């Protein structure tokens, strides 16, 4: 039996980063890592700490957190609650900030799941002995609000030059997330759109509540998935923005900063924390990784993702790769994260004095025109028709269902090209759209006045620089 | 040049509409393009394959009229298609370049000797002059000998450093300043992934450059296949019935590269465009200013301190940022171990390398 290397007293039950920990020391190890990120720089310290004005009143920071009821969010919340509790006791009933947590759900089934899980959290002994949850409010948001009461447009990608144009969509107000996901050709595109929608919904909430910090519960592991995932999806230009916790979120009105307090904690460590703290009953639909628990040697081999590779999304495949590599090349995850942190936006591709356009779908900055790039490397015309036989086949094709479908696409394309307006898309979204049948998607037009104002403001700011 | 058109189907059943090429809609599709899964006919495939490479050459201004160019020829599929395509496009589009073949003989029995035979046949088929530079003549070591003393695990480290120099020296000998290599999109994407997984920041920004040159070197390298899928190169070689050598080098590639390759293969299964997607990302990976400035300042200062101009290796006169070039350092190490090995057993020949190979495989 090993002894904990921190306190040198207790028996170690966890082994992580080649070090042995007892229950208590491990909990402290994880929680300190998160707190360091929360108190790391002045901006965040000012939001989270209990700050008094000269007259004795005190400011209460406003914090929002995206919440998916998975282990990382749960641990992040647990550590935040512990911090609130500490503040409450040390400052005679005062806390430094309040927390609004936002869960985006797709249908009633997930909503009920989430509600039950929240009920479970509220009534658990861990949080119900005092009134600490008074400072935490949960909001469930239906993902379909993304389409609700908005003007919709149909965005289409040109099959030959990869440009994108859009036209108002007739059946206004009558499109749902389900329709969108059904149109996706594979899990990867589906996950991409879903993540874009969830992120947008949470950020919009954060903007509307005028919070100062938006917390994302992503573990180091998940961030590393994202970084490599962005590279693989052709979105490498946006890695820097996706990790940025230093600047205010420009696309959402320069109101809040995005914070990743779990950035230094591996997912396996987060899961081990859950096990140590006996919090597993609070999770929804989640299989814990037990790989760091010493007594659980047998379980080391579990959690093998049994999904067929071809049914995985890119991020899931990346995760599988990391897991397969864990033994031999153990610090690959932190290496990827460190590399990601060294990147900046490729503004060198912008013309002097111009600001990047914003992708109409994912709201990311576009540094180089994807259609120009794709055009330069892809040829979509072929060898001419030569013989009578070939002419005959071409005629048959034109009259066939496939010919008609293509014809329909071409008609729609020409119509939109004549009547619509240009909508800039980033490379990743262009590729996604190109893979959808009919190469188009229905998306809300941002007529939301607030966001429009925000965009205007953003453009002026960026221009001034 | 002549190539025989692949045999037309003998019993001509009428085609179904669903079998037709997705570009011209009038001939039978026989290839699914790995790049975008488009099903196309042979004629259209040849057209898009050749035109895309031509576009890459023109868009990146790879050549100027009258330029003399050495094509790195190994006899493998990439370089064989490269030789063929370079000659074809040069004639078709009137680049006005003068092409020579340049081969490196690493001295790997059972691999390079056979593939060099292919290069020699290519030379005749395409009517292009050929220059062969061997490790033995340059370094007095063959790869087989190197593996015998340094072990199979390091084979590619030695081989890579030596090949770089050998190509440069070969080009110099020909009085040529431009080497064209057959690196394809897959190689490039793999390199981008590897640099990220390893955190090799120094190489990250350059990993997708289509033209590279070591600082101070008059010799540049370019990669016209930067956006060309390996699978399409294989298909092209197959349908054009090109004569190439398909055996892989007997020394295994580095283990870590193997894992990146496996990951790429799986990714391609989910999203075939991922190879160019990764290259697109690679072109957009830019390091933060601060760090970069410090690094470049340092290296500038270093450069100023140590070499006024010329930066050449004291021993072999090859371009080097250090007093002694990497090749000479590796050679020095090799000479030392050769001394000790030859005492133990008299085995500096390729037979021993073979035995070692077998042993290493067995012990696995
Ligand atoms: S695989 Fe390695 S040893 Fe073989 S030729 Fe290539 S670099 Fe040289
Ligand atoms: Zn302890
Ligand atoms: Zn986008
Ligand atoms: Zn065709
Ligand atoms: Zn030297």
Automatic annotation (TrEMBL), chain A:
InterPro entries: CTU2, Rossmann-like_a/b/a_fold. GO terms for biological process: protein urmylation; tRNA wobble position uridine thiolation. Its main location: cytoplasm. Keywords: Cytoplasm, tRNA processing. Signal peptide: none annotated. It holds the Pfam family CTU2. One of its GO terms (cellular component) is cytosol. It is found in: Cytoplasm. Coiled coil: none annotated. Pathway: tRNA modification; 5-methoxycarbonylmethyl-2-thiouridine-tRNA biosynthesis. It comes from the Eukaryota. GO terms for molecular function: nucleotidyltransferase activity; sulfurtransferase activity; tRNA binding. Belongs to the CTU2/NCS2 family. PANTHER family: CYTOPLASMIC TRNA 2-THIOLATION PROTEIN 2. Plays a central role in 2-thiolation of mcm(5)S(2)U at tRNA wobble positions of tRNA(Lys), tRNA(Glu) and tRNA(Gln). May act by forming a heterodimer with NCS6 that ligates sulfur from thiocarboxylated URM1 onto the uridine of tRNAs at wobble position. Prior mcm(5) tRNA modification by the elongator complex is required for 2-thiolation. May also be involved in protein urmylation. This is Cytoplasmic tRNA 2-thiolation protein 2. It comes from Arxiozyma heterogenica. The gene is NCS2.
Automatic annotation (TrEMBL), chain B:
GO terms for molecular function: ATP binding; nucleotidyltransferase activity; tRNA binding. Its EC number is 2.7.7.-. It is found in: Cytoplasm. One of its GO terms (cellular component) is cytosolic tRNA wobble base thiouridylase complex. Its main location: cytoplasm. Pathway: tRNA modification; 5-methoxycarbonylmethyl-2-thiouridine-tRNA biosynthesis. One of its GO terms (biological process) is protein urmylation. Residues 69-253 form the tRNA(Ile)-lysidine/2-thiocytidine synthase N-terminal domain. Keywords: ATP-binding, Cytoplasm, Nucleotide-binding, RNA-binding, Transferase, tRNA processing, tRNA-binding. ATP binds at residues 72-74, 78, 104, 182, 187. Residues 311-341 form the Cytoplasmic tRNA 2-thiolation protein 1 C-terminal domain. Plays a central role in 2-thiolation of mcm(5)S(2)U at tRNA wobble positions of tRNA(Lys), tRNA(Glu) and tRNA(Gln). Directly binds tRNAs and probably acts by catalyzing adenylation of tRNAs, an intermediate required for 2-thiolation. It is unclear whether it acts as a sulfurtransferase that transfers sulfur from thiocarboxylated URM1 onto the uridine of tRNAs at wobble position. Prior mcm(5) tRNA modification by the elongator complex is required for 2-thiolation. May also be involved in protein urmylation. PANTHER family: ATPASES OF THE PP SUPERFAMILY-RELATED (PTHR11807), CYTOPLASMIC TRNA 2-THIOLATION PROTEIN 1 (PTHR11807:SF12). Belongs to the TtcA family. CTU1/NCS6/ATPBD3 subfamily. This is Cytoplasmic tRNA 2-thiolation protein 1. It comes from Arxiozyma heterogenica.
């Amino acid at each position: 039996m090993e002894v904990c290397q921190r306190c040198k007293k207790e028996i170690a039950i966890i082994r992580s980063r080649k070090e042995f920990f007892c229950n208590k020391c491990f909990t402290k190890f994880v929680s300190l890592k998160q707190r360091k990120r929360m108190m790391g720089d002045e901006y965040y310290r000012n939001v989270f700490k209990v700050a008094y004005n000269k007259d004795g009143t005190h400011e209460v920071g406003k914090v929002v957190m995206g919440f998916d009821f998975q282990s990382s969010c749960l641990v992040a919340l647990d550590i935040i609650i512990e911090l609130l509790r500490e503040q409450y006791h040390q400052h005679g009933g005062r806390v430094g900030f309040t927390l609004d947590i936002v869960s985006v759900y797709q249908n009633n089934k997930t909503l009920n799941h989430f509600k039950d899980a929240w009920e479970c959290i509220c009534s658990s002994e861990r949080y119900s002995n005092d009134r600490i949850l008074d400072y935490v409010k949960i909001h469930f948001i239906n993902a379909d609000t993304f389409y609700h009461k908005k003007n919709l447009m149909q965005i289409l990608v040109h099959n030959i030059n990869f440009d994108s144009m859009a036209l108002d969509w007739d059946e206004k107000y009558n499109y749902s997330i389900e329709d969108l996901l059904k149109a996706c050709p594979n899990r990867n595109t589906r996950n991409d759109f879903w993540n874009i929608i969830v992120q947008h919904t949470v950020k919009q909430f954060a903007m509307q509540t005028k919070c100062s910090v938006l917390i994302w519960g992503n573990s180091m592991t998940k961030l590393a998935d994202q970084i490599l995932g962005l590279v693989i999806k052709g979105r490498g230009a946006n890695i820097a923005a996706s990790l940025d916790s230093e600047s205010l979120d420009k696309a959402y009105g320069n109101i809040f900063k995005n914070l990743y307090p779990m950035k230094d904690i591996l997912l396996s460590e987060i899961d081990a924390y859950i096990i140590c703290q006996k919090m597993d009953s609070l999770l929804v639909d989640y299989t814990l990784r037990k790989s760091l628990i010493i007594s659980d040697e047998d379980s080391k081999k579990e959690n093998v993702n049994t999904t067929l590779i071809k049914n995985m999304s890119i991020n899931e495949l990346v995760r599988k790769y990391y897991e397969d590599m864990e033994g031999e090349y153990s610090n690959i995850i932190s290496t990827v994260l460190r590399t990601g942190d060294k990147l900046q936006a490729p503004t060198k591709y912008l013309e002097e004095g111009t600001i990047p356009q914003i992708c109409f779908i994912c709201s990311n900055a576009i540094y180089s025109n994807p259609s120009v790039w794709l055009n330069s490397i892809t040829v979509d015309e072929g060898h001419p028709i030569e013989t009578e036989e070939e002419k005959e086949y071409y005629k048959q094709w034109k009259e066939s269902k496939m010919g008609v479908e293509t014809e329909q696409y071409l008609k729609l394309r020409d119509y939109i090209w004549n009547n619509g307006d240009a909508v800039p898309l980033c490379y990743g979204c262009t590729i996604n759209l190109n893979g959808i049948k009919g190469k188009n998607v229905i998306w809300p037009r941002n007529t939301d006045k607030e966001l429009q104002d925000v965009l205007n403001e953003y453009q002026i700011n960026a221009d001034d620089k | 040049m002549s190539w025989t058109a692949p045999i037309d189907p003998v019993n001509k059943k009428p085609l179904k509409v669903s079998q037709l090429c997705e570009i011209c809609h009038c001939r039978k599709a026989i290839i699914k393009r790995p790049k975008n899964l488009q099903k196309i006919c042979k004629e259209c495939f040849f057209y898009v394959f050749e035109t895309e490479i031509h576009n890459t050459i023109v868009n990146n201004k790879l050549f100027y009229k009258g330029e003399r160019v050495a094509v790195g020829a190994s006899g493998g599929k990439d370089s064989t298609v490269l030789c063929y395509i370079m000659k074809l496009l040069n004639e078709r589009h009137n680049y006005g370049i003068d092409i020579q073949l340049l081969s490196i003989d690493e001295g790997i029995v059972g691999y390079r000797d056979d593939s060099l035979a292919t290069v020699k046949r290519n030379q005749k088929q395409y009517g292009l002059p050929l220059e062969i530079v061997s490790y033995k003549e340059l370094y007095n070591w063959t790869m087989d000998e190197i593996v015998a003393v340094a072990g199979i695990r390091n084979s590619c480290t030695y081989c890579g450093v030596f090949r770089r120099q050998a190509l440069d020296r070969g080009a110099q000998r020909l009085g040529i300043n431009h080497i064209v290599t057959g690196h394809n999109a897959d190689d490039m994407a793999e390199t981008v992934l590897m640099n990220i997984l390893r955190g090799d920041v120094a190489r990250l920004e350059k990993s997708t450059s289509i033209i590279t040159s070591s600082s101070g070197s008059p010799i540049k390298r370019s990669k016209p296949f930067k956006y060309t899928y390996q699978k399409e190169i294989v298909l092209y070689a197959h349908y054009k019935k090109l004569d190439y050598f398909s055996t892989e080098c007997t020394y295994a590639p580095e283990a870590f590269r193997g894992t990146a390759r496996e990951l790429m293969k799986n990714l391609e299964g989910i999203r075939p465009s991922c190879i160019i997607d990764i290259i697109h990302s690679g072109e957009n990976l830019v390091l933060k200013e601060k760090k970069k400035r410090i690094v470049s300042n340092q290296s500038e200062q270093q450069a100023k301190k140590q070499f006024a101009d010329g930066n050449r290796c004291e021993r072999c006169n090859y371009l080097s940022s250090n007093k002694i070039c990497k090749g000479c350092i590796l050679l020095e190490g090799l000479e030392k171990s050769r001394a000790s090995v030859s005492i133990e057993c008299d085995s500096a020949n390729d037979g021993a390398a073979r035995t070692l190979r077998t042993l290493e495989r067995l012990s696995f």
